[in-house]
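Thread: Modeling a multi-component assembly for a lab meeting

Hi all, long-time lurker, first post. My supervisor asked me to bring a structural picture of a complex we are working on to next week's group meeting, and I have zero experience with this. I have the sequence lines for every component (231 residues in total). Could someone generate the structure of the whole assembly? Inputs are pasted exactly as I received them:
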Amino acid sequence: MHVGIIMDGNGRWATRRGLARLIGHKRGAQQVKTIVKSCPPLGVDTLTLYAFSTENWKRAAHEVEGLMKLFRGYLSNNLVELHEKNVCVRFLGDPSPLAPDILDLMENLSSLTKNNTGLNLNVAINYGGRDELVRATKSIAAKVKRGEIEAAEITEQTISDHLDTKTQDDPDLIIRTAGEMRLSNFMTWQSAYSEFAFLEQSWPDFSPEVFEKALQNYHARTRQFGAVIAK
Ligand code: IPE
Ligand code: IPE
Ligand code: MG
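Re: Modeling a multi-component assembly
Sure thing. I ran the full set together rather than chain by chain. Output:
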């Protein structure tokens, strides 16, 4: 089962407590560790975490810098443990505007863990579903131009295969914390038939227990994919 999580509400979590927004992000980063660990026993084999959107550059420079610092910390401090836990880490999004040292850390983590067979962890950094579709379209167009594929032969599968998620299954369930009911540019193509859970808890309060409840709720649903399924 593939679960995507829009980790929202760090800022509000902190503001409510009279703390700086970055303290909320710090708590959020700690929560990532706990939730990643909880996936295998909960039956989640692919987890996609929305960490930074293509729109998040609009935030104050010190908040963006603080988030980048947290990514550096997460990527370097969790390398050994993620590898020991057999997690295969991939990154979604356009890496080009990220700092060179962050790119190095991302490359280290993905190459070290690429043959791991446990949890598939996708981390979406500078990710936008529309940007992903633009990049996929450019890459398909270039192949058509080189004569590698015929325009008439482009299928839904061709598009899926050129997205950052490549051959991975689409998310079965997308969870968004902190009460907002929108996708904010997350998995535009892949979410076509996803189930949704919009939860009240802010990301720093999203515990394995809350996660388990959301999964139980998901398992009680009937997914018809356009057909009529007799109950
Ligand atoms: C989510 O928390 C983290 C990122 C988007 C990077 P927010 O920072 O959006 O928290 P709120 O929505 O302001 O509470
Ligand atoms: C979505 O949250 C992006 C991430 C969780 C990384 P935002 O807080 O940025 O989304 P909006 O601005 O409320 O749509
Ligand atoms: Mg937010």
